[in-house]
């Protein structure tokens, strides 16, 4: 039974704000009633988060890791109820959601392992030189530490992996912070079930209740009030450019500014070079069609811009792509707002004389349009993300037009190069290094591996901080600060900085990386 | 001969903006006339910086390192002229400036060594697993890369080490960026000489001229125009909270926001615990007096707040501190603005009935006031930095009052604990971890070691990003972004990510730190 309540510092409470309901996007059937939280309930949640932080941060790494492992187990213990509830709210289908649940639990366990291993703390030690002239060198040591209460704004397109207990929450908890989640209003029952799971883990591990709160609601005021709370220290957000920027601005304009790590829209340019087209045209067309339509085109890494150089193989490729797209059935979009937004954008494409429709204007398949590079370059709005199964093919007369297009691009999460040792690849790669967070060679941008080297980020407007990733273990760094200790007695040092290195972590000691003890 | 011009992309140009002059703060004698730059000259400098970046970033690490080493040599080659010019403009004295020149050249050479060693790039590699089920794992590699043109705002209080060729410029260049410096108007001839030095290094190493520009001027409009330039990528600033916040806001409010790393005011609380006072009262008094008065109290790490618990030794300590301060002669302050600001603050202290003067209200020595913790806690304005040789002694009736004071504090660069195994030290350290960037035990906060573990930063308002340091080799991270490569051919990978690890850097390979080659 879904209660329709919010979880505020361990108590399930009726929201004192605006009521809303959830809907099945496949059938438009109404599912559940909820009440959004009121402003005083937000204050209560952040205050409780702050009080809990003081306790939670003092727990040992093993306690923290075991708690996070337990969250994963509790998600799994929800069983089919979670998948069925989530499928009703999103229409993403049980196979996809089963995979996404696996990814969500895998992420949590990866962060638990990371905490236990300990090298993520970036311990640095420079030992004293008491007899240095003209003044003695003190002993200096620094390490990453948690920051305090973190707000997480759930995404609609990954109702498990980028939502209530997704990567932002996992990485914030792993660093030793407490979390207040603002649940996405298009899958509130899914969020409630996840909150039940973490509540069970909190009880089993005797964690302070305020370590996690879930605020339900869809009012913009709720979001900005949360970001402005004086005790909040950072924000993780995945969603639209418009909302991401509003929250970023709210964080920056506070009396005490805080970082808002927003992962926003991205159109993920793809460059298909002549030799690759000649050698692998059909293969690329099939792969691209799959990537454009994955999750009904609602991936932040969906390839929305496909650049080609004029070649004899171009027409055959276009035809192969149209055919491949035509074979793929598109499911419903995530909610009514996304559906109407998508239709509006496609209708603008149809009415744009510079664009030619190749597929999907009947909405029976993904949509594909083509445009000459000169027109694309003269019309910067065409770079904007179309959230849904649509892509734009940009036909470049020559490399100069292609390079000019890259130079004009804003920031994107990814850029893809298909090259069979094509001469143009080097220049394109160099240019993309200034424009995207991840450069994929001869592959497709959807599918974001969870691993230490993954960078799911990119220059603005794809994110608000080009140094930050929201996927992979480096995501933990967003929710840490550096604390440095000078001439501290051993008893006052964090574990990772103690002489005998009890965790055995990799440390930068007097400029060299080592797991050795000091003076041993 | 000082030209009074600005260096704009390799050309010495008369500023088209507001004229200003430099003064000797010890004698009020006028020294040189300058013309501040106009807005179109700023545009020219940043545009040239952007063009130069595309060339500079492609140079090898050895080329970059040799260029930075050369800058240090060229500073030294300026000889006594630099020291004498700088002393006239700042009155800081030749011995101090000789030391600061050594620090400045040492910083540059430390960054040159860092580049050559290469591990600062944080290379991460996760190798492919082609047969993984359900889908193959791609090869993912990530590394830090430069970001583009960086603006550096010079500080008045370190006319060499935090100015034209100081730590911000050194770390930005080391990462592979180009730099536009806005020189501080209170030491413009010193800035000009430093610009001559780097111009020589640019010529000797055939660097693009736009790699460095120096803009002279004091108009606030010049500063905000620079921060708002669309091609700028980041800002380093050292100075007042007021100006730092203006620039931070300008950076955040841009159509494309950029980070403004501002290191601003700090009052650096010191906690002297009873047993330390009993055992080392005189020693602490002498050290503290030296730290308060170093550089006429114009260090960002000057201890301005000294907290004590009520003990029988308290009065003797106060007397010892007053005596020690009385023995130290204070030089001139850096400029007329700082002098009048200091006098205003001291006059407000004198007129505050909660404060009692202990020393220096005649301005013959540093000033020392005392206040009861209850009054301090009721008067949050007393936490604000007094830039100059002043400190406030806060007398706490008990630990509770002391802890309440810490809880109310904003962010500071440092916090200091004097403890001889005092029981209170643990709780104070835990509380300070949330408030300061560096915790010093039984020492003094002035004197900031340049080393990998140094963190010269702290929570707002001491800086705008609690993760960033402006001293030490980690300062380079502020001016980098992450770029990730998926399934990239070896030829397209940056050096640090190539299989055979030609630089021999420390890398995180499949979760383990190693300098090993891949598949070797």
3D architecture notes:
The structure is a homodimer of 520-residue chains. With 520 residues, the first copy, chain A, is of the alpha/beta class. Chain A folds into 2 domains: 9-120 and 145-264 and 469-473, Aldehyde Dehydrogenase, Chain A, domain 1; 269-441, 3-Layer(aba) Sandwich (Aldehyde Dehydrogenase, Chain A, domain 2). Chain A has 14 helices and 21 strands. Chain A has helices spanning 39-56, 61-77, 80-90, 94-117, 167-174, 188-204, 220-228, 241-252, 274-293, 314-326, 336-350, 373-377, 399-408, 425-432, and strands at 6-8, 11-13, 19-23, 30-35, 124-126, 140-146, 150-153, 179-182, 212-215, 234-238, 260-263, 269-272, 305-309, 356-359, 367-372, 390-396, 412-418, 436-441, 480-486, 507-509, 512-514. In chain A, the strands form 5 sheets. The first copy, chain A, has a 7-stranded mixed β-sheet with strand order 14-15-16-13-12-17-18, sandwiched between helices. In chain A, strands 19-6-5-20-21 form a 5-stranded mixed β-sheet, with no helix packed on it. The first copy, chain A, has a 5-stranded parallel β-sheet with strand order 9-8-7-10-11, sandwiched between helices. The longest helix of chain A is centred in the first third of the chain and has 24 residues, at 94-117. The radius of gyration of chain A is 25 Å and the shape is globular. The N and C termini of chain A lie far apart (59 Å). The interface between A and B is large, with 72 and 72 residues. Chains A, B: Residues 12-463 form the Aldehyde dehydrogenase domain. Chains A, B: Keywords: Oxidoreductase. Chains A, B: InterPro entries: Ald_DH/histidinol_DH, Ald_DH_C, Ald_DH_N, Aldehyde_DH_dom, Aldehyde_DH_Superfamily, ALDH_KGSADH.
